[in-house]
Structure formats: C-alpha cells, structure tokens
Amino acid sequence: MSLDRLGGSPDSQAFELLGIGFRSRARTVAELAALAVREETAVRQDLERLQSDGYVAVQGDQVRYTAPEEVVADVVRRRSSDLSAEVLRRLADLAEVVGQLPALAREWDTGEAGQQLADVDVFHGPEAVVELWHVKQAKDPSLRTDVVLPDAAPLYVADPAMQRVWHEATQGEGRHARVIASLADGTHPAAQERIAQEMEAGVQIRLMADPPGWFWITDETTVALPLVWGERWPTSVMSVRNRAVAGMASWMFERMWERAVPVHSGAATWDPLLTLMNGGATLEAAARALGISERTGRRRLSEAMSHFGVGSMLELGVAWGAVRPR
Asked: Topology of domain 4-110, per CATH?
C-alpha cells in the first residue's frame, strides 16, 4: 500500500521495515539493515520517512520505536486539522493510515510478549460482518452503534432473528444506531422495504454518493475494520477494543455524517440535493434518493440559482459552497 498522497508518508517497504523493527527491537540502523537484508543507506531513507510521522526516533545509529496506536492517533490529529472541500477524499486517506494498525499491532505484540496493544477479535467468511457485531453485542452490549455500509446488498432481505436482535440493541433510552449507506443502495428498489423497516425501528440512515469503506464503532470503545481496507462487504474483519483507535474512527464517522443527507428527506430545500450532487451524484440519482422527481429536483436547482443570483451550475456550486450547511 502506498500512502505517498498523504504528503511523503511511509510506503509499503518502509512499513515492512517497521514490522521487522517491531518484532526484533533492533537497536541500531546497522542491525536493522542486516535483519532486513538491505543496504544501510536505503534503510536510513525509510527510517527518515518513518521518523517524520513518529513511528521511530533515530539518533545517530540508535533507533527507538513508538507504539503504533500512539503514532496513528497523532498522524490523524495532525492531518485532520484542515476540513476543506476535499474532506471525503481525506477521510479515505486517513482510514488507510488507521488500516495499518492491525498488522503493526501484531508485529508489536510479537516483538514484546506480554504487552497487549489491543483486544482483537477476527472473523472470516461471507457472514463475518454480521456475525462480528452479534458476537460482540452478546459479549459486551453497546448503547451506540455507528456503521458505514458502502454495500448493503447482502442486507436487502432481512434475517428476522438477526434483525430482532439488532433492533432490540438499538432501541431504548440512551441507545441509538446510525447508518451511512451508499446512494446506490438507498435508491435501489430491492432495498426499500428493508430501509422502511429500519427507519420505523428508529435507525437513522443517511446517504453518500460513495462511502470510502466499511467500518463500525460501538460506544467509542470498539471499532471494526476489514482486514483489507476499502472492501465494500469484507469477508475478513476484525474488531479492535481500544479507545484511541475507536476515537479516530468516530471522528471520521462524524465528518461523514455531517456531509451525508437523510434518506428520503422531504425537506423543501435545495441543500440535500446539492449536497448529494456535490458528492458525485447525478441529478437523477440524487432526486431519487430524496424521494422527489427529477422535475422537482430541477425546479429546486432553479430556485437555488434565483436565490443566489447566478446563471449556471458552476456559479451555483461556488455560491452554495461558500454558505453550505456544515
């Protein structure tokens, strides 16, 4: 995996070197280079990249290592300071950084037995996504569950028993469930009955044109991630019980929630329509997601142009972007 687009971050070769360092706790550059079977010059270059993000500290020939959860938390904090119009792309980038944690955590534990970085459970198979949540819920019931669901097709038809447990766990005082789904799923005819059932049960659902990847958080203490980041319906997933990691995922979810729009919103404004279109949806798809006709959607765009005193979609995008809801 390459993280270069985050501004000079370590690439896969550097993370491979870091894994060797975590396992061996090599104290010098020369020792680390020997274990990696690489030239010292190349190793130093990768260590410089790793040091810029705080994974290691290099003084002369000496190398010291930092626990990966601390580093990833700091990377996310530093890179999330500018919530610009590129926030959704940045969320995907940040999620890739978080996605490095499981592998690095295993290397860290291997290098220093007895120091448990996080409480981790792993599930495999086509039902791993659903099974993980239900096993976690049975072991440690949660009050709040936030889910990013890029591909909901496997859930269009509900399993009554599973759905009953889900609804019981998300209803009652202090409980809530929020789901961010894709625009394609939110408007798919086969999904409408399931969406209606979930909303009737009190589940809050919002739509985005293209959610960056599947994950969920419960009570800001546990986060579930695919073993391969970016899978839309993963078949290998892991839950990590760790407040630092779950806190980062919660931050990402909140930013996404702010920019998603309620499913079948009946609001007589142009904001939800423009929000979806700004995220990459066509007018036809955005209108369908909001439960309005394409003709109504065009009328709302016309009203928005009149409101902002502009004569083109480009000008509307600029004017609306300056005052868009946050």
From this structure: Arc Repressor Mutant, subunit A (1.10.10)
